[in-house]
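Collaborator request, handled under Task 6.
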Amino acid sequence: MNYYGGCDVGSTYTKAVILDEDGKIVADTTIKSKINAEESATVAMEEVLGKVGMKSPKELKYLIGTGYGRNKVPFADENISEISCHAMGVHVTDPTVKAIIDIGGQDVKGIAVDTDGTVKNFAMNDKCAAGTGRFYEAMARSFEMTLTDFSKLSLSAKNVIPITAQCTVFAESEVITLVGEGKPMDEIAAGIQMSVAKRCFVMAKKAGATDSITLTGGCAKNDGLKEAIEHVLKLKVINLKTDPQLMGALGAAEFARQKGQAQ
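Structure tokens returned to the collaborator:
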């Protein structure tokens, strides 16, 4: 039995996936990225290889690196952009999905998926951290909450307190002021989620979304954001059966499987 690997070195988290010859996930892992991208890739691969009883990436038939640090995966046979890998990862998970919003640690991408899992069109906002994973980490700090608790906070809100600042630094300051004034925390959180959902509007249009969309990246686990996107964009958010944070690594592993079997 041959095995194929994908390693997605992100700015915040590094993910790794191993597939068997049939494209089934046999192992996966997600770790907090290190300062050094090469170290992140090495640690993640050691962890995921250990789950299938392997000691070296050389035991894999083919391995593809992707993500922010894809050029720093020393044992990869080749690198493919995270945009292509997210599209392929979503395609093998749910072929009916044709539009993706990928919210990473430092950027937001809108991706249109073709019928074969390739990228039809994409748009990216990497000029500002607002609406990214780093933005949500800053907001959770302001509330003195974990990201998991913060992602659910807005679900109980009866009203929305708008967040007017567009910059992460100013938004964090605005939120701290509102909390200090004793405003309802769930309503402030609802304002934050609405603000991010509005930022996703252009990305969704670029991705060609008409009636539904799916989210990938760690922020896809944010229940409040999903609800806000459905409300603002008037689109159904499709929940993937596989961890949405693994989509880049899964797509990379699927590309590795295709290339490895073609040899």
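The cover message to the collaborator said: "The CA atoms of residues 155 and 227 lie 8 Å apart. The beta strands are 4-9, 13-19, 25-32, 62-66, 78-79, 99-103, 108-113, 119-125, 212-216, 236-238. Please let us know whether this matches your experimental observations."
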